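Archive entry. Fields below.
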Amino acid sequence: MQTNYALEIKGLTKHYENFHLEDVNLTLPKGSIVGFIGENGAGKTTTIKLILNQIQKQSGTIQVLGLDHETNEREIKEQLGVVLDEGFFYDSMNPLQISTVMKSLYKNWDHALFLKYLDKFKLPKKQGIKEFSKGMRMKLSIITALSHHPELLILDEPTNGLDPVVRNEILDLFLDFIQNEEHSILFSSHITSDLDKIADYICFIHEGKIILQDSKDSILENYALLKCTHEEFKNIDREDYVSHRKNTFGCEVLIKDRSYIKLKYPNLILDSINLETIMLFYILKQEEVK
Amino acid sequence: MKALILKDLFNIKKQGKFIFGVVLIYGLIGMFLDVNFLGPFLIILCLILPINTFSFDKYSKWDNYALTLPVTRAQMVISKYLLGLSLAVFAILINSLFYLISYLIPGSQPIQIEVHLIFCYSILFASLICFSILFPFVFKLGIEKSRIVLFVIFLIPSISITLFPELFDLIEDKFGFLMQYSFVFIILVSLVMLISIFTLSICISIGILNKKDF
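PREDICTED_STRUCTURE:
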């Protein structure tokens, strides 16, 4: 089935005793990177597990590359490259053994490409994974996910715990991958600075609910941090901001329509904002609601 | 499927030298004392090695990763049973090899092919029955809790026989009628039983894994 989306999730729900994933709707346009952000325990991994059929959903539909994720599971997984925060081959195995196993699994496994990646990232071919550093493991995990020419990459916290040098190397690899317009990435992370660099769209999940989903450029263009005194804050209408944070010197207020606010409150200072701050203020808003 | 078995074999290979050493010692002792020490050891080995692969799977969170690959849950189950079966067949081959070598030692007892075949079949039967009982528990409860089941599998028969030696007489009394049939017939009947139990166990394990959340 032809579709413009690499991933399309509608009305997805999953209930646990202490956690509920509620009516999740998420789209990943082909040729783009969606940053799936949220704090630890927000529901990112649960959503990914549902996409991968590792857990059973209560309701909703998931289409991956235009196919239903349950009925076409094997077909989909041939086209999918997945990197998990936890879960990979045995520590005793070496990259060449991994390639041998993968060759029997994937129709399109490209051993030459795998070797090329190993050379590029200076990973030893015959050394057991247990002797690899965390960064080397993650690189191996990523190049393993890339070596069968997948169309969609699903990454669960791929840069978690890595130093900035390795993180940049890995982000470059993703940017290379996305050069092909048919390729797409769902990048789940709570390290929003990585997504500031490479994401095209942002989907923010909090306590099992999607609370913000838009293109990154649009978010960074429209959202801003308004800084004002406590007195000035009292004059701001509640519907004009998302949430606010008070400190000794004044108030920081998250607003989501920069041009409108600029017109309405011309004397107040508007600062540019990053994804992390937006995420923090949205969490504050949810706490306020509670 | 091949890939899943291969992954386990790579792991077992890591312990290869140690296993080879122990098999060699047991085999040689058996050969020179003219007692089959190797057979019982191979049964235990056949049981331990596939169970160990479950432990390694758990440690590396393999199941989570496997479900991101083009692999079905049924294949994950069947691969474990096939691994167990392959190891049992391999154990039989090793046992036969030592048996044949021992025949070449001057002064050893003449080769008794029928006895040897029955012994080999016993290895296969015992291993596969143990897998068939244990694996559904492993898929349901995880490897740690299932070790208790493994313990019970061995403990109940051992304690029963030790505490109640008259059980031997009871078994002989109840199953003595089988002696009127030929060995071939008994083996064929038990083989049908074995295949049925093995298949049923696979189906139960697939059912368990299909419902499992990872």
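CURATOR_NOTE: Chain A has eleven helices and 14 strands.
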